[in-house]
Amino acid sequence: MGPDQSYPHIRVVLSIVLGLGIATLLKGIASIIQHPRRYGWSWIHMSWVVWALTSIVTFWWWEFRLTEVPTWTFESYLFVITYCALYLMLPALLFPDDIREFGSYENYLIQRRARFFGLIALVTVMDVIDTSIKGRARWHTLGIAYPIHIVVLLVACVLGATLQRKRPHLVLALFALVHQVAYFVIEYFTLSVD
């Protein structure tokens, strides 16, 4: 069975999992709009929410490149589903079921920063493997911007996991958001053949 027959089947599972991640983020944003004082709206938290939303939407967009995978194995399928599931975990960490002990999403995020930034680092490493699955041509197409992007994200994760004060976290969150959006606009604006 070629990729033209197996990938549409895989794409359905990807769509379900990523759709759940987007729904979690949008529901969380709606709850903040409805009750901003209850959840402690902040620029730090909202920047990471928008970063996650941008990341999930663009991940879904560029996974179209999986049509280029010549042969699907159960291992590659399992990898892609696992990678996709990590994108569902990001919204779950950004909008936990109960934040009463933390007082706000911002406090929760800063106190649980090692887990959150560890997950972003894992997603970043998984992206390198995912790019490998798409083949050598994909690596060549991405050029030098891709490894720079990966290094920037990993450095941001190390900083995010170690910083404790809110102001540096705000600077990091805004930087990461601007970097992510700029990179995706430059690299992934079109799916045309490179």
Commentary on this structure:
Keywords: Membrane, Transmembrane, Transmembrane helix. The chain crosses the membrane at residues 12-30, 42-62, 74-95, 116-133, 139-163, 170-191. 25% of the residues are buried. Helix content is 79%, strand content 0%. The protein is globular and about 50 Å long. The longest helix has 32 residues, at 3-34. The chain has one domain (5-191). The mean pLDDT is 87. It is mainly alpha-helical and 194 residues long. The chain has 9 helices and no strands.
Primary descriptors:
194 residues, mainly alpha, 9 helices, 0% strand, globular, transmembrane helix
Structural class: mainly alpha
Mean pLDDT: 87
| CA gyration radius, whole angstroms | 17 Å
Gross morphology is: globular
How much strand? under 5%
Distance linking N and C termini: 26 Å
Sequence of secondary-structure elements: HHHHHHHHH
Helix content: over 70%
Number of helices: 9
Seen as an oligomer or otherwise, the chain set is single chain
Low-confidence stretches: none
Q: Total strand count, please?
A: 0
Kindly give the count of domains.
1
- Largest sheet, strands/sense/barrel: none
Keywords: Membrane, Transmembrane, Transmembrane helix
Transmembrane segments: 12-30, 42-62, 74-95, 116-133, 139-163, 170-191
